[in-house]
Amino acid sequence: MKDMKSTTGLSLDRRQFLKAGAASAAGVMAYGLPLSQAIWAAQGKVLRARSYADINKLDPGFYQNAYNVDVMNCIYSKLLHYQPGTQWGTELQAAESVEQVDPTHIRFRLKKGIMFTDGYGEMTAEDAKFSFERIIEHNSPIAGDWGPLDHVEVEDDYTGVIVLKSPFVPLWNITLPYGAGHIVSKKAVLEVTENGGDFGMKPPCFSGPYVLSDWRPNQVVILTRNPEWNGPKPGFDEIHILPIGDPKTAETAYRAGDIDFTHVSLSSLEQIKAEPLPDTALEERPSLYYVYVGMNTDHPKLKDINVRRAVQWAINVPQLLEVGYFGQADVATGMIAPGLVGHRDQALVPPEGDLEKARQYLAEAGAEGLTLHIDVLNESKFTTMAEMLQAQLGQVGITLEIDVQDPGSFWTIGMESEGQRWKDMQLIIQRFSMVPDPYYATTFFTCDQVGEWNWERFCSKRFDKLNAEAVAITDESKRAKMYHEMQDIMENSGAYRFLTHEGAPYIYRESIMTPATRPDGRPLYRFYDVTSA
Amino acid sequence: MPPPDTTHGDTPAKNATHGDAGAFAQHWRQLCRNPLGLFGLALVVLIVLSAVFADFIVPFDATQVMAGPRLAPPSWDHLMGTDQLGRDVFSRVIMGGQVALLVALSSLAAALSAGLILGLIAGFGPQWLDNGLLLLLDSIRAFPVIIFALAVITLLGPSLATVILVVVITTIPVYARVVRTQTQALSNNEYILAERAMGAGTGRILGVHILPNVIGPLLILASMDVPLIIALEAGLSFLGMGVRPPTPSWGTLLNDGYNYIHNSPWPVIAGGVPIILTTLGFTFLGEALRDIFDPKLRRDL
Q1: Cβ contact (<8 Å) for B240 and A271?
Q2: Which of A32-46, B141-155, B283-297 has the highest mean pLDDT?
Q3: Chain B residue with minimal CA distance to A323?
Q4: Which family does it belong to (chain B) (predicted)?
Q5: pLDDT tens for each residue of B7-21
Q6: Is any Cβ of chain A less than 8 angstroms from the Cβ of B154?
Q7: Number of inter-chain CB pairs under 8 A, A vs B
Q8: Do residues A472 and A168 touch, judged by C-beta distance below 8 A?
């Protein structure tokens, strides 16, 4: 038999190979390492995680949805990022320093040597200026994230000053550390777009610790190490993000070993605690999500506020949460979660509602025997809640039809840019992600957002005024009162019935990773670490 | 004056009609000799009876939430336990059978009728019409059923009627093709040619000679399609594209149960077993009928 020669001159025949293999296996077992983990350790370190939806936008200037930002966090850099852990806070990332010079001026200085891939050179203050200003210039859907940005002054290659037209408190909480704060290469973006606009799903270059290596729609997003990255080395060689809409399916995938990190549904929590999964840690985090029943105020059947109020009062929130979340989620009082500025102590409509009052509203509207339909995402908690809602509305004589939608269809229902479906939308169970500033919740319900993210088509001048003013208020109690009023206005419109902020439990394989998440459990993949053997 | 009968009792259809009572007894004896066929018949009868008398059998309203504790295991109160909304699973299984049979039988009836008419026209009509119809039928058949179903449901919205429509459209070409082939084969037989020579009209030839000979194989084929259609309805409902909640369907039972399988396996079992039994029942019965009415096909197989 011909020997296999290694480059070091050692020879290895079949018998020696088997011996060496057996010795290695024995060594591994003697060391106490499970064989599967040893095999994993011998291969590239791959983080396999689940996302609740597939990516559909990788331009941070035009980002949509948190699941896109999860990927952007890995492939781009920004001045600040949320610090991983259980307390909200930010840390410097691409910036050496960021300081508030006065209420409308913020000076930043970039770290030297942060490189864009594909030969686009070093990140400069000019790139930061371009990245921030293009969001305003192109009237991006997330222009609100930059609020009153006027312009960015470039002082030298690394230093710039963000100039605001008026003070903007959320800049520190959401703008800089979240999606809109990512910095792209001016040269690269201008090359692939006509005028620096949206480059969609084709990033011309990267500047984070990972690059987008492959994207198979609805299958997997693969991120690999950025060879040009010279910052802190991330723990994993590759990150595989699998879009799995239903958390129950994700739990099954986790049990089958297809993924090693996933959020789990609250309805599974009790069972996972009772029968812990092997090699698995469970962490529970309070969530900032807000879930509500929304009503399209422009729909002929719902134009009468009495009909909307009838629906509001017919809904028994604790009952919905009991079936949807197995009693593991608390009732929400509004959009803003406990612990954030603007959280209300109680809603205007009591959680249990009042069937008699609902019937009165319905009679006032002359809408007895009404038939409505509700769109829900095809997740078990939403469909289950919708069926309970069907029973609840049935008690006051409203027939509710349920339309279950897959994520691709659901997330465009109310968008005018996606066709005419918004006209048919009536009721919806909606769930939005959130970052730790109340502005991020309210800003999607202004009149400008009608047909964008404001699918209820709720429009109040008073609300818009408060929303614009509150961002400049640094006094927390005064600011909180403004957000209380805004939520009151929303609720008084009859278009909203707030349900819950859910919770954010997640599970992961202890032998593989030490996860790094925001306090609300949102993954920060670039900080995930490999468990040391 | 009607043309004289020239068939002299020598066509298969005429043979089959000789002594109906005797033939039935003979077929019944043949079926009794086939244990799988008998088992299939028993299952089919059981399923049909439970669907027909569903309203008298179910102990609870199948849509009543909180009829019992959520995800409870089987008990005397709830024979198959309860689902995530506390609904009685046994009641939902029985009422789901009604939905399954409604979809299967109504869509089969519509598809058979349309397929029969189109197949007769294609097989007995002029060549250009045959070509045109074949092109249409093959175009429909070219669509993968599930993809076609998802497209139609996306356009029209999920409902029982949409599911039936999908099944009808996708099964018509199958039956039409079978009828067309049979019709073409039969129309060249000597007794048909003789009938024509004697001045028999198209209606008489189709109605008296061809139709009785194609209807048998068609019904056998249909009986074997029942489980396929039930599985299609269940599959669409499992994907949330079938019947609308809270209408019970075996597919939605499976979907709901699957989501809570780690909390309670009973809803999945309750949703899965009827699909298996129905499939077995109709398949065994269909095969037995095929053996009885078309022993040549059995030998060929």
Answers
A1: no
A2: B141-155
A3: B85
A4: Belongs to the binding-protein-dependent transport system permease family.
A5: 444 444 444 444 566
A6: yes
A7: 52
A8: yes
